[in-house]
């Protein structure tokens, strides 16, 4: 009967091998735990407190999804399969070793068919692992993608684990070569190699000596791997799942945390390591340096100094350099924003969230950047243009520096006049937004939106002069006080109105109204993006089209509509309803590539860039070949992409249209 | 006590400033109605020549009935304390109907303090006078005008350019000079340490035939390249208003305005400039001003020959392309 | 170094300005009052001097609507004392303001008094030189640089064409600031709100304002368009085409 034999082929002459094995494993584990604790304690002893222990069932589910099933790693095929091979290989070997230990001391389960399946599974994963390792070697030495950190430490880890697995394969195959059991083919890989050993013609004793040698070497390598795990690049085996477990649960993606306060009620600005939460310090240590965030970052792609990966590694570097010293409560902590993480780096971020979306272990880059921006704002460290925009927002409630009284000037030619939601009840309160109201190039689109709402028989109204910038990007810039002031003003006006739902054309406005504005009373009235509203109207038959446009279009998912709020299908259904054919951009839905205006970037000096994100996007669209119309669902996108079409000289190839323009044309 | 109009002549390093002629023109208008003389008041040291022929060889003299000249070493270069003390004595003694000062770095250092010191009423930002002796002043960025009777017994008035042309204050005949003695100027609290020349820019915008000028509407430094492309295509250079220079987006040598350069190009294309008085006064002598601004109420449209209420960002690149095409053909 | 800064609130030119029914004053219905931008520069210059050489900065303003915010913002930038002067300020002119502030300033015994070189609603001279007259201190205006030395100050005075004159002024003196040595710094709203909780604005009352010295207006009116520019309309292409035509006419193309 096939069964597992403890320590096959290992002589007991120097005592039971178990002693050595358990001694070394215990030693390795102790070293692992001690070293890990030394790293980990810096997180909670230097960083701020934060509660992340709640709703353990959801957290465990996330660990299963991201640390075990690794769904995010699989977003990219090659490295995904490569890493699944390596990681699942290791999970399997770990489980296999655990089962073997149970089998050895507690319950003899590894016998009969169970044992055969056990062997087969282990062998299959050995093969998958080796394929993964091969893919990894090819990637690291031949392909050399820019996003990876190509340093010796990673090579050592790869070599180490491959040797460990090879050791396992070799010892198994040597046993099979000597024993030649009938069930040998249940370990197909081992059996194959065993044939090679047999072919050498070596005597059984020789083979057994090799077996002993390789087994001992394997044991030592495993001990080495375990003891060095906390200081090498394999630390992510522990910190990755930990990071996933402690990922943020308390708020939706589109909601930033308020400024934390000390016990005395004083605000805490992220200027040093001590001001970051323990989880943010864990973020730094957990980073596997995969660089997917960097590849997705529009700022990095345009040549700005920001790399989300380097920001997180900057936190890690600071922790490694200063962490120990900071255990002394009186020690002065050096500033974060300055050396590695410069002001320019922090201001380059558009807060598009692509980095967060890509990160396989759920690091929260945007939150850290906004936290550090809050410090810069308090210190007044920003370029003069952003300063001007913020001063205008504070004084006039819009970044254009125009009087509040000009906000509704676009409505003048509209007859009959649009309802004033401040004075009469409406079903839909249309929160128009700054760009749609003040920008002369966008007036046309705004007027068309009103016409479409009218045609659909909507009962809607606007706030006229009382509307202020909703504050989404003010908050992302780090001016929390100004954000609060805008929220107060808008909320006061809204509280006096009677409406059933809010609708807006601007995804930024949408995001903050939906996720960040306080709910008064027990009612939570829905906030809709106009794409969602149009989708509903089309579905219910209230909006009918008289023609099929037949354009070949592509659609750009706005960051704050798609990634942050999951609205992907509604605009697509609307496009389809207008009779247009949608051809997807390579980077679409949650992989959409930001236009570059968010996070207050549209208010700042552009600085040195190689290629604007918007230009890259237009080129991506033109490359699709047959597309004539680039459809957007955000007023800032209209501005950014129309400019980009001009600056890339693509006026003949593609035209930028807002979704409402399609709808308007098809009515 | 008389009905004369005194004009404090402004001069800097041997040159009479244009505002002096504008004031003389205004004084002439006032003097007509009041029946008094126009008296130019010149303070300096060995500066009689300025009264005689202020722009050497040009044949243009101060258009005044007479010049009162006060000579003192302490008055060689303008300093507020010395000039104030000298004028206080003169005005206090002569008690003219009005004393005109420039609304400038020189004039405003003097007028208000003298108003308190001598207990005399004052009016500032005056643009012109009417035949019946009223002043007309301009405030609030040029948007509001204020009119009233010239206060008495002696009105101290600061004047801004725009109401009269410099030529109106010039004459072909030299006025007579009378030297006036003043008591010693002692314990002066303001002394000149020296002058700092402006940085020699790569271009002298005052000599360029075409200026493409940008104001706050250009929004940021990167966009200035749009103006540069257009300027190059038109054979001119880029200049800017005060906010643009203050931000450091253009060198100070490119500043058009009260503290910068006065320009008279063939074409002054104003992009996103509102046309506040400090800027307007520096461009009124241009041959053709073309204003591009989305604000229909921008004061620049009142001095421009042509205007378009269009977003400069929609226009500039299209215009540059068309200009290049026109040149090519 | 004891520095006092005077601040005036003036009409915001972003809004449309109209004349009220009296015919000689601005209509206050839609009028927004904001800090005179030159006074903002004066505050910045004062704070810079304090940061460089130590001392105390006091900011003084007339108690009218909106002044609290302006004073607290100055405190958030680094001003040490805030004083608002209470009186009936209807129809006030700069002569009256200067006299009202003089008593307050004399009590403070400053080494240096800073204020903006002018304000957009000045009709009877500017506050700075009027104050200098009342306080019998020397005055130099149109400054873009101020540095302090023992008993005196070195200033940079702006002349047209970018020419600068460096002058020495004995203290105490009143200076009119055109531009601070760096643009006025940004102060976060939360910082101002925090300062509102911890700082107080001292009050001084002045009775009876003396307006003598200012002009009496017969009328005030919006600047007439006069010869308004010939407006070119149409799409960007059309406007550009017409402009090219004008360029050709003028011989530039």
How would you characterize this protein structure?
Chain A contains 26 helices and nine strands. With 667 residues, chain A is mostly helical. Chain A has a five-stranded parallel sheet. Chain A is elongated, with a radius of gyration of 30 Å. The N and C termini of chain A lie far apart (77 Å). Chain B has 329 residues and is an alpha/beta fold. Chain B has helices at 18-34, 48-52, 80-94, 111-118, 224-234, 242-246, 277-280, 312-328, and strands at residues 5-8, 11-12, 15-16, 38-44, 61-62, 66-71, 98-102, 122-129, 134-139, 144-149, 155-159, 170-171, 176-179, 190-196, 210-214, 237-240, 267-271, 288-292, 306-308. In chain B, α3 packs across α4 (111-118) and α5 packs parallel to α8 (312-328). The model of chain B has no long low-confidence stretch (mean pLDDT 90). Helices cover 30% and strands 28% of the residues of chain C. In chain C, α2 (67-77) packs across α5 (189-198) and α3 crosses α4 (127-135). The termini of chain C are far apart. The mean pLDDT of chain C is 94. Chains in contact: A-B, A-C, B-C. The A-C interface holds A 259, 267, 377-378, 380, 382, 384, 387, 390-391, 394-396, 401-403, 405, 479-482, 484-485 and C 14-16, 30, 34, 183, 185-194.
List the helices and strands and how they pair.
The complex is a heterotrimer of chains A (667), B (329) and C (253).
Chain A: H1 17-46, H2 56-68, H3 77-105, H4 112-143, H5 152-179, H6 188-199, H7 204-228, H8 236-245, H9 278-286, H10 292-296, H11 298-301, H12 308-322, H13 343-347, H14 354-358, H15 365-378, H16 384-396, E1 419-420, E2 428-430, H17 434-438, H18 443-455, E3 460-462, H19 472-477, H20 480-495, E4 501-504, H21 507-515, E5 527-529, H22 530-540, E6 552-555, H23 569-577, E7 581-582, H24 613-623, E8 629-632, H25 635-647, E9 655-658, H26 659-666
Parallel strand pairs in A: 1-3, 2-3, 2-4, 4-5, 6-7, 6-8, 8-9
Chain B: E1 5-8, E2 11-12, E3 15-16, H1 18-34, E4 38-44, H2 48-52, E5 61-62, E6 66-71, H3 80-94, E7 98-102, H4 111-118, E8 122-129, E9 134-139, E10 144-149, E11 155-159, E12 170-171, E13 176-179, E14 190-196, E15 210-214, H5 224-234, E16 237-240, H6 242-246, E17 267-271, H7 277-280, E18 288-292, E19 306-308, H8 312-328
Parallel strand pairs in B: 1-4, 1-7, 4-6, 6-13, 7-11, 8-11, 15-16, 15-17, 17-18, 18-19
Antiparallel strand pairs in B: 2-3, 5-12, 8-9, 9-10
Chain C: E1 2-7, E2 9-11, E3 33-35, H1 37-53, E4 56-62, H2 67-77, E5 81-86, H3 94-108, E6 112-116, H4 127-135, E7 139-149, E8 152-158, E9 164-170, E10 173-177, H5 189-198, E11 202-205, E12 217-222, E13 230-231, H6 236-249
Parallel strand pairs in C: 1-4, 1-6, 4-5, 5-11, 6-10, 7-10
Antiparallel strand pairs in C: 2-3, 7-8, 8-9
